[in-house]
Design a protein that fits this description.
- The protein is of the alpha/beta class and 260 residues long.
- It has a single domain (28-257), classed as Alpha/Beta hydrolase fold, catalytic domain (Rossmann fold, 3-Layer(aba) Sandwich), CATH 3.40.50.1820.
- Helix content is 41%, strand content 15%.
- The chain is built from eleven helices and nine strands.
- It has helices spanning 3-25, 44-52, 67-79, 92-100, 124-128, 157-164, 170-178, 185-188, 215-224, 240-243, 245-257, and strands spanning 29-33, 57-60, 85-90, 107-113, 144-145, 151-153, 183-184, 202-207, 229-233.
- The strands form two sheets. The chain has a six-stranded parallel beta sheet, sandwiched between helices. Strands 5-6-7 form a three-stranded antiparallel beta sheet.
- Helix 2 links the parallel strand 1 and strand 2.
- Helix 3 (67-79) crosses helix 4 and helix 6 (157-164) packs across helix 7 (170-178).
- It is globular, with a radius of gyration of 20 Å.
- Residues 1-23 form the signal peptide.
- It comes from Duganella radicis.
- One of its GO terms (molecular function) is hydrolase activity.
- InterPro entries: AB_hydrolase_1, AB_hydrolase_fold, Sec-Metab_Biosynth_Hydrolase.
Length: 260
């Protein structure tokens, strides 16, 4: 073989090796899953910080219809990512990521943001009532009847700021109230399947002034999941990712950088 051919083959081999080297150093994709009474815009402050630090972010649309079908929708998004994923869930979105990550080989970390981390058989309603402190029930609007016999739940707009987002500016909370996404009553009462947090490392962050899920319940779930790190923010509401995006983004980045 001629020397020029050898050099050409070596150069090609080096070129082919470069993408693999880059892939090894690549940051994981962060998939953000919103919860009930919210949408992906609730992550805007977190997304901006993550993107500034070089992360690719996907705000997954959570249908809020049932744990099983919502998890399947999120799992499809995760499976479409070519590379490692940090899967992040808020509130009911925690139940969804716990199910969606099961069997997903590319999910390297789970981050629970004021979120449910249910054991198999548990429900969101049951966990929120496990400890005293949730005041969500009386703030719900009359259910909206669906054609299939189900019921959609909303928070009364006049009570949304105080209940859901007390530490968010009032003008912002009004917009959130108007654009809130409903969840079915059935989804909140659906038993969870075997959770992925038993096999995938988890991180937790929540507000100590959460009125939807009592802080005691969130602390209990974090301890039970053997969380790598738990951050409890004094005075923070249920939408801690909206009111404290820097702290939430920092924890997500810690999870992204941790070794499995």
């Amino acid at each position: 073989m001629k020397t020029s051919t050898l050099l050409g083959a070596a150069a090609m081999a080096g070129a082919l090796a470069l993408p693999a080297a880059f892939a090894a150093d690549a940051k994981p994709t962060v998939v953000l899953v919103h919860g009930a009474f919210a949408d992906s815009s609730s992550w805007d402050g977190v997304t901006a910080r993550l993107e500034q630090d070089g992360y690719t972010v996907i705000g997954a649309a959570n249908p809020l219809r049932s744990v099983k079908s919502d998890a399947a929708a999120v799992a499809a998004v995760v499976n479409s990512v070519n590379g490692p994923v940090v899967l992040v869930g808020h509130s009911y979105g925690g139940s969804v990521i716990s199910a969606a990550a099961a069997g997903a080989g590319n999910v390297k970390a789970l981050v629970y943001v004021a979120a449910f981390a249910p054991e198999a058989g548990e429900t969101a309603v049951g966990l929120s009532g496990k400890f005293p402190g949730s005041t969500l029930g009386p703030t719900l609007a009359p259910p909206v009847a669906l054609a299939d016999g189900g019921k959609d739940l909303y928070i009364q707009q006049a009570k949304f700021h105080s209940q859901f987002a007390a530490d968010v500016p009032e003008a912002k909370a009004r917009l959130m109230a108007a654009g809130q996404r409903p969840i079915t009553d059935a989804a909140l009462n659906e038993a969870a399947p075997a959770p992925a947090w038993k096999t995938i490392p988890s991180w937790f962050v929540y507000g100590k002034a959460d009125k939807n899920i009592p802080a005691a319940a969130l602390e209990f779930m974090a301890r039970r999941a053997n969380a790598k790190k738990t951050v409890a923010i004094a005075g923070a509401s249920h939408v801690v990712m909206t009111s404290h995006p820097a702290e939430v983004a920092q924890l997500i980045e810690e999870a992204a950088g941790a070794r499995r």
